[in-house]
Amino acid sequence: MDYIILPPDELNEIAVDLPLSKSVSNRVLIISALTPGAAPLPELAECDDTRAIIDALSDSDRQEVNVGAAGTAMRFLTAFFARQEGRSVVLDGSERMRNRPISPLVDALRKLGADIEYVGKEGFPPLKINGKRLAGGEVEVDASVSSQFISALMMIAPTMEQGLTLRLSGDVVSAPYIVMTLRLMEQAGVEADFVGGNLVTVKSGAYRPARFEVDADWSAAAFWMEIAALSTSEFDLRRISPKSLQGDCAAAGFFEMLGVVTEETDEGVHVSPSPEMHARLNINLSENPDLAQPLAVTACLLGVPFRFAGLSTLRDKETDRLAALVNELSKLSFDLEIDDDALVWEGYRRPVDADIITIDTYSDHRMAMSFAPVAIYAPGIIVRDVEVVSKSYPDYWNHLVEAGFNLIDPTELVGRKNDEEAEAEEAEE
Predict the structure, then answer these.
(1) Residue 402 class from Cβ within 10 Å (0-12 exposed, 13-18 middle, 19+ buried)?
(2) Catalytic residue among 107, 215, 217, 290
(3) Each residue of 43-99: pLDDT tens digit?
């Protein structure tokens, strides 16, 4: 389904119940599944990624597990099933997932004693995993592809006979997510350390039952900061904590550079626009790559040139997000460049060459949510395949409607036009 998006004359200043963090939820699920006598699960994120892990863990007899487009589920479950002694599973995903690399994780698990085979293309899912007891020990891992490889290994590490020492090679990406994993493991009684930015140690032992709490998703909050920046409206974002374990709580600081003030409240945070913003942004987003899309779209529409570095991992997400941003922002007259791992806009614009602007989303939830607010500047913009938001924020469109946006299904307009033409023909007869 596609949406034509029209903004109101003035947005409603609503209180938004943001989705719970899928990053925290997914880690809580794996740790709980590894904990003898685990405490009841807290309220978890209701989204495709988290549901994929819940479904995979719910049936211990399943021999085939398909996680669809859920990258976190693929990485975490690869390690989890490798440790499930006596169980064999084929772990698969969507066609895009079959082209997302997983060899750094598989190589590390094999060195630790795991039995994993590639069913198709070498280095990529699907995987045939024969679970067994892992010896553990020391292994080097390329940490420049995904921090989820590191987190996946960390979470199963206490169950290994020798514990685990991980030496991280390459430029470590999304390090706050490694720290998040560490903190959640510590809450469950495991001793672990992240030393010097490139050494992780986890002692052998057993998880203890822990009562976790899952706060709202800072990555989702960024889209409301984007709307605040592009409008004169302010919003209350509920259930979100400035003291969150989530690395994307850095969104508050980044969007402050684009004129958004974030203030803590009793229920979460309040975001409001401000006329003060930086003339240019030069930010390394290697620790927060998921914020690149809303930041890039916002900066372009506000006319703020930028260089966002540290984005090498965006090439292997749901789509090549760097290429997707260049393609779709070009439709809005903005000429961006990719410089190695950086996304750059020097402020150059050209005339828009289309009456109707249609944004392709590339099966990527963050593309859809980043470009929908463009309707504030370009009413009538069309966003394609809007269902993709179910991956992380299923209520996104409902919340936009609450804020006053009008979402129109183009097929309804065609049907309405056909009905009007038929009525006109009958009247002529």
Answers:
(1) middle
(2) 290
(3) 999 999 999 999 999 988 899 999 999 999 999 999 999 999 999 999 999 999 999
Let me know if 290 is a catalytic residue.
yes
pTM of the predicted model, to two decimals?
A: 0.92
337 pairs with which residues across the strands?
344
- The answer to whether 116 and 128 are in contact (CB under 8 A) is yes
- Per residue in 124-159, pLDDT (tens digit) is 999 999 999 999 999 999 998 899 999 999 999 999
- Identify the CATH number of the domain in which residue 109 sits: 3.65.10.10
Domain that includes residue 296, residue range: 3-18+215-414
Residue 274 in any domain: the answer is: yes
The label of the residue with tokens 């930010």 reads: 283
pLDDT of residue 428: 56
Do residues 247 and 382 share a domain? yes
Helix pair angle (147-156, 22-33), 10° resolution = 30
The number of distinct structural domains making up the chain is 2
Contact yes or no for 382/359 (Cβ under 8 A): yes
d(CA 85, CA 124): 23
Any idea which residue has 């299923």 for tokens? 394
* Distance, CA of 113 to CA of 100 (rounded, Å): 23
In this prediction, the residues of the chain whose per-residue pLDDT falls under 70 are: 353, 414-429
Angle, alpha carbons 82-88-91 (nearest 5°): 70
Nearest 5°: CA angle at 282, between 281 and 288? Answer: 100
Enter the tokens of residue 267. Answer: 């229920």
